[in-house]
Amino acid sequence: MTETIFDVGDVAVTAGVEAPPEAPETEAVRKPDSVPQFSFYGQNKREYLFLTDEQQHEWMSEPAMDAFVKTLAALKLTVDDVAVLNLAKLKEPPLIDHLTSVFKPKVVVNLGTSLAWPEQGGVKVFHTSTFDAMLADAEKKRVFWTTIKMLLI
Q1: Is residue 103 domain-resident?
Q2: Residue 14: is its pLDDT beyond 70?
Q3: Has residue 6 been placed in a domain?
Q4: Residue 120 CB neighbours (<10 A)
Q5: Cα–Cα dist 85/52, whole Å
Q6: How confident is the model at residue 63 (pLDDT cuts 50, 70, 90)?
Q7: CATH number of the domain encompassing residue 104
Q8: Model pTM?
Q9: How many angstroms separate the CA atoms of 52 and 103, rounded?
């Protein structure tokens, strides 16, 4: 019989038998306990997830958001087709499993964030610069446009 007497952090002490310690989990393999709610921009109708890391803006700066919306329009998409999630506004870094559960992305576009999203389960991942950086550098903008056309069309 193993009855939990008390719980200390992540290790439960049981009567009669001590639970073996578990190996530390990395971000990519941690199992979600409960999936959190995420506040994001768009409706995610086509399951294209754009990740930002904007400390000073809700999603992106105004010029960056304008360029983003124009880029979507050029691809014959709207903000309803995508989800924009600002990682800087989250209390803690999200688990990939949580993001996958909520957004079910076909494509993840990592706009200058440090989140390492593995290419697995058929999800295409594109790591690129922020829209602000692209607005300041024509070569970054060209590389982005060339790649995003192939991913989202």
Answers
A1: yes
A2: no
A3: no
A4: 10
A5: 6
A6: very high
A7: 3.40.470.10
A8: 0.76
A9: 15
